[in-house]
Structures are given as structure tokens and as C-alpha cells.
């Protein structure tokens, strides 16, 4: 995945933070919680997570140096940030909460990933995850459609961004088989009112398109972005405000004591 631009990502901060609060509402606070936030970004929401839960210890994990440069301002006693990939990071001891808001969709093989994350939890530890699932939206399909055009197809060697997400019902089955009691899984459709359809490429430029731009040579960045904007104009209605629908999967589970490490 390409390097993130914090200022671009935070242009839609209010809209992007709504699922965070919905996910946080699923967590049952307990005294003295030990928490990890996987994919903490700029750390602003991690700090809020730490405060709302009155956690004893919270660590935010992110692989982006640019994002972590912003998170340093939020560090304090009991709250720290580390640069690491979600795939490689491991806690020093059992955790009470593994929290992942809009980060796991960058990682393949969710069955194995969730099995690994489950081993991090203390008895009755909680897992709370929010996964963007908007690959069916025309603006998201447009990114792959442009990537299949020349000269981008040759430069990318035929690569397009694919999403590893499972169906919501599959997450329910995976969690149950991992020993989570009564897992809660839901598909939520968020409606964002953007000024116009021209703002949709700005939204995806802060997330989805980073994967394409990382792989394209610098001289093809602007041509790809311009062609993408043209494609978006052709598939989205010209309305103001533009009603941008965004699907997300939210799930939560509490690990049964007999299943925790």
C-alpha cells in the first residue's frame, strides 16, 4: 500500500469518523483495559478510544510514518504509538480489546488473520472491527476499470486492487468457530452528503487510489488521476449535494474464557 497523506485523508474527517463511534459503541468498557488500535492513523481517534474506555494502557499501531508523525502529539502516559504492520505486530501480553477501525481490508486471508488476533486476547477479551466494503460502488469499480486501460495496464502488469472481505454472515461463522460468544455482525450503509460528484475522487484519492499510485511510475500519476476523474463523471449523476453511499461491515465479539490464551 502507498504512503498515506494525512491532510488528504482528514479532509473528510467527520464522515470517516462516524463508523468509529458506531464501533466504539459495541465495546463493553471494563476497568483497567489493555487495548490495541490496529491502523491508528493520526492517533486522534485512538486518543479518544483511550479516554472513553478509561484504559490502563493503549497502543496505536500503524505502518505509515506520515500518519505516525501526527500521532506523536497525542501520546501520553498510558497511550503510545508504534510503527509496525498489522501482520507482524504482537502484544507483550494478553489484551482486553483488539480494535481495528478501517484497517483490515488491506490484509488478505481474514480467516487466518482473525484467528491470529483472537490469540492476543485475555479471557473475556473483546474484538471490535470495522471494515469498509464499498468495492461495489461505481466510483470504486472505476479505479480498476481505468487500471485496465493502457498505458496503466502495462505499467501495473495487469494488477488491480482486490478486496479480501468476507460476507457478513461468514464473519459471524468465523467468530463463532474461534470461540466468540454471540458475535454481533452487521452491514451498515452510511450516506455522506458531499458538495458534488467531483469530491468523490478526492475521497478515494485519500484511501483506495494510494494502492494504484504506489505501483504506477510517477509520470503516470497525473494521467491516471485525470482519467479516473473522467470515468467518475461518466458513471455518477451530476447532483448537488452528491449522495455518496458507503457500505461498511462492523462486528464485535467477546472471547469465551476457555478459548483465550
Offer a concise description of the structure.
This protein has 261 residues and is α/β, with parallel strands linked by helices.
Task: Pick out its properties.
single chain, alpha/beta, Rossmann fold, seven-stranded mixed sheet, 11 helices, globular
Q: How do the strands of the widest beta sheet line up side by side?
A: 3-2-1-4-5-7-6
Number of domains: 1
- Helix content bin: 25-40%
Helical stretch count? 11
Assign the CATH architecture.
Answer: 3-Layer(aba) Sandwich
Task: Give a topology summary.
Layout: H1 6-9, H2 13-24, E1 34-38, H3 44-53, E2 57-62, H4 65-71, E3 79-83, E4 95-101, H5 110-118, E5 121-132, H6 138-147, H7 152-156, H8 168-177, E6 180-194, H9 199-205, H10 208-215, H11 221-235, E7 242-255
Notes on the protein architecture:
The protein has helices spanning 6-9, 13-24, 44-53, 65-71, 110-118, 138-147, 152-156, 168-177, 199-205, 208-215, 221-235, and strands at 34-38, 57-62, 79-83, 95-101, 121-132, 180-194, 242-255. It has a single domain, classed as Vaccinia Virus protein VP39 (Rossmann fold, 3-Layer(aba) Sandwich), CATH 3.40.50. The chain is of the alpha/beta class and 261 residues long. Helix 6 (138-147) crosses helix 11. The mean pLDDT is 93. The longest helix has 15 residues, at 221-235.
